[in-house]
């Protein structure tokens, strides 16, 4: 197992490094970048950059400093647009918000989706099954940017139950709509995957044996069927994580929740390269680490995987 | 009747090399029959035909140009800008008094184009990549698939936005960005399928007669991948449309005066509070209906072409 984790790390770390180097080179190449020309950059920012990287140094040296700062101190350097802000300030401000509703969305998608799929499989061909399949088919065409306006239209403008944006330190009322908008399509996918893998497991020989010896259905499902049926869901968690973290950008913009997505889009529109880069690298690193975690979890649960 | 035909069709296979075999039914004819029996898939195909016709010929029916501003509307769009047959704004006007029908035609074109281009790139690059990796195998396979894994493990939307910011936003850049990612899944699928084909007798026969590797891949492997490839390409179109709409919704994709479903939905969503529900309703309806149609079409094609994998 240790060897397996080490081997995975041997892939993960170069991936992250490659992402950092790629982003850095891209920024250097960008027209209007402070490294390419001095026009359009406020003098104070230029002073910040000068102090940090030394603009007279060679490309390789600057890249080395940047990579070193990021890898060892998680220091993404100063913003290109605001003289009194660093990228780390923005991340420190926005990340807790993203993490909060991201966590709830993930939890909702897994628990609701998983339960729905499980019930659909156990009560195959009942009304519950039809309902679950209906929901999961319908939600395919409701990505977050479709869900968000519809939810606000219904719950804010028509019913007036929930606020249509803002954060207020994460009060429940402000978290609900973002979580629903973000989790719906993933919940549907998880329900679909759980249903089909559970159906497959329930048709297997060892389940028939369990039923033949007279075990109650609840026990069969929870003790025997659940674990093998969970495997496809675990392998879906990686893509779901990427999808949700991408979706968080939209949630931040639409609901003005103040997460890192909002900084990301604002910086993209204002060409504040260092912020875009910092956030891209942060998200990329998180994703790679999460995938690593999923791989390890998978290998741990699935006895068929040899490592 | 159906069973009877099946029996005839399978008869020649049983009698090995029968002399007078009746006209067999090809794989494709079988698939067509299976597809036509699936009502949802056939209906979806018809709907998609209509949407494509709307994109191609819609502007001939528009009374207004997509960039023209109807000054009579401007200022009180919520009161008089709604859908109306009499003034020629079939879908109403947007917040700046432009005809929404013409805008929707324009957006439909862009969104469909993005979906189709993405799917085409994935078919060409993904199939070639996956078939090569799967057929050659060994170290080449490992390296090629490792690259795919690597690209899949980064949150691509962020990198694409970074690219769009650095290299000026344009439709071409959007296509390049989408093209860079769309083929990854296809490569995996094509590789898996190739692995199951490459040890079959007809490939062995080709090797034995001295056919070169690239020719084997092109003439013997790729044609046998087509069924699976078509199915996944169909399912890829909607995900590419979603992908582009997401970026355009954020305001980072297509630029004014050009538009797409994502940009139109965004404009509708931003004007929800101004009592102009048609601005959200029409683009959203096109988006949802088209996506549904593509998903059902993909499902129908999968049942028809890839019956073992359900």
UniProtKB/TrEMBL annotation, chain A:
GO cellular component, one term: plasma membrane
Predominant location: membrane
Localization terms from the record: Cell membrane
Gene Ontology biological-process annotations: transmembrane transport
Keywords: Cell membrane, Membrane, Transmembrane, Transmembrane helix, Transport
Superkingdom assignment: Bacteria
Gene3D superfamilies membership: MetI-like (1.10.3720.10)
Pfam family, one: BPD_transp_1
Topology of this chain in the membrane: Multi-pass membrane protein
Coiled coil regions in record: none
Domain ABC transmembrane type-1: 95-294
Transmembrane intervals: 9-27, 103-123, 135-160, 172-191, 229-255, 275-301
Similarity-based family: Belongs to the binding-protein-dependent transport system permease family.
Protein's UniProt name: ABC oligopeptide transporter inner membrane subunit OppB
Source organism of the structure: Profundibacterium mesophilum KAUST100406-0324
Automatic annotation (TrEMBL), chain B:
Gene3D superfamilies, per database record: MetI-like
Principal place of residence: membrane
Transmembrane segments: 42-64, 110-135, 147-166, 172-190, 221-243, 278-298
Gene Ontology biological process terms in this record: peptide transport; protein transport; transmembrane transport
Annotated keywords: Cell inner membrane, Cell membrane, Membrane, Peptide transport, Protein transport, Transmembrane, Transmembrane helix, Transport
Compartment(s) where it occurs, according to its Swiss-Prot or TrEMBL record: Cell inner membrane; Cell membrane
Membrane topology: Multi-pass membrane protein
One cellular component term from this protein's GO annotations in UniProt: plasma membrane
InterPro entries documented for this protein: BP-dependent_transpt_permease (IPR050366), MetI-like (IPR000515), MetI-like_sf (IPR035906), OppC_N (IPR025966)
Domain ABC transmembrane type-1: 108-297
Family statement: Belongs to the binding-protein-dependent transport system permease family. OppBC subfamily.
Protein name in the entry: Oligopeptide transport system permease protein OppC
Species of the source: Profundibacterium mesophilum KAUST100406-0324
């Amino acid at each position: 197992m240790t060897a397996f984790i080490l081997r995975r790390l041997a892939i993960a770390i170069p991936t992250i490094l490659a992402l950092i180097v790629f982003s850095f080179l891209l920024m250097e190449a960008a027209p209007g970048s402070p490294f390419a020309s001095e026009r359009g950059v406020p003098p104070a920012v230029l002073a910040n950059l000068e102090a940090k990287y030394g603009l007279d140094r060679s490309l390789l040296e600057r890249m080395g400093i940047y990579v070193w700062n990021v890898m060892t101190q998680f220091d993404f350097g100063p913003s290109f647009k605001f003289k009194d802000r660093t990228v780390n300030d923005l991340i420190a401000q926005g990340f807790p918000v993203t993490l909060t509703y991201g966590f709830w969305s993930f939890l909702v998608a897994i628990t609701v989706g998983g339960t729905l799929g499980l019930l659909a499989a156990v009560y195959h061909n009942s009304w519950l099954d039809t309902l679950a399949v209906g929901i999961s088919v319908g939600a395919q065409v409701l990505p977050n940017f479709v869900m968000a306006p519809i939810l606000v239209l219904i719950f804010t403008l028509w019913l007036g139950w929930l606020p249509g944006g803002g954060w207020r330190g994460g009060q429940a009322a402000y978290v609900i709509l973002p979580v629903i908008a973000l989790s719906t399509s993933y919940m549907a996918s998880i329900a679909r995957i759980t249903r089909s893998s559970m159906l497959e497991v329930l048709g297997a020989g060892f389940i028939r044996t369990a039923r033949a010896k007279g075990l109650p259905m609840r026990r069969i499902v929870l003790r025997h069927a659940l674990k093998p049926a969970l495997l496809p869901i675990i392998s879906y968690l990686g893509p779901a994580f990427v999808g949700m973290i991408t979706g968080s950008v939209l949630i931040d913009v639409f609901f003005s929740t103040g997460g890192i997505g909002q900084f990301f889009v604002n910086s993209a529109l204002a060409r504040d390269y260092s912020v875009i880069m910092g956030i891209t690298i942060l998200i990329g690193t998180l994703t790679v680490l999460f995938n690593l975690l999923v791989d390890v979890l998978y290998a741990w649960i699935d006895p068929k995987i040899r490592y | 009747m159906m069973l009877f035909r099946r029996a005839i069709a399978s008869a020649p296979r049983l009698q090995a090399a029968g002399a007078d075999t009746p006209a067999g039914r090809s794989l494709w004819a079988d698939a067509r029959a299976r597809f036509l029996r699936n009502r949802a898939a056939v209906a979806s195909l018809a709907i998609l035909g209509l949407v494509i016709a709307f994109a191609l010929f819609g502007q001939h029916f528009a009374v207004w140009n997509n960039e023209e501003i109807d000054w009579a509307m401007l200022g009180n769009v919520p009161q008089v800008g709604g859908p109306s047959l009499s003034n020629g704004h079939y879908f109403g006007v947007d917040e700046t008094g432009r005809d929404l029908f013409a805008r929707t035609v324009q957006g439909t074109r862009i969104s469909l184009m993005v979906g189709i281009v993405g799917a085409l790139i994935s078919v060409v690059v993904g199939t070639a990549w996956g078939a090569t990796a799967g057929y050659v195998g060994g170290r080449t396979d490992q390296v090629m698939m490792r690259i795919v894994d690597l690209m899949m493990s980064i949150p691509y939307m962020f990198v694409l936005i970074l690219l769009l910011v650095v290299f000026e936003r344009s439709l071409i850049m959007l296509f390049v960005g989408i093209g860079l990612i769309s083929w990854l899944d296809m490569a995996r699928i094509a590789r898996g399928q190739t692995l199951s084909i490459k040890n079959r007798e007809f490939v062995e026969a080709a090797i034995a007669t001295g056919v070169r590797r690239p020719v084997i891949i092109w003439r013997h492997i790729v044609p046998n991948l087509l069924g699976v490839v078509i199915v996944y390409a169909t399912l890829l179109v909607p995900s590419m449309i979603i992908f582009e709409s997401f970026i355009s919704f954020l305001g980072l994709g297509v630029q004014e005066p050009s538009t797409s479903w994502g940009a139109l939905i965004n404009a509708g969503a931003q004007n929800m509070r101004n009592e102009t529900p048609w601005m959200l309703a029409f683009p959203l309806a096109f988006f949802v209906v088209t996506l549904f149609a593509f998903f059902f079409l993909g499902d129908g094609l999968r049942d028809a072409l890839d019956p073992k994998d359900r």
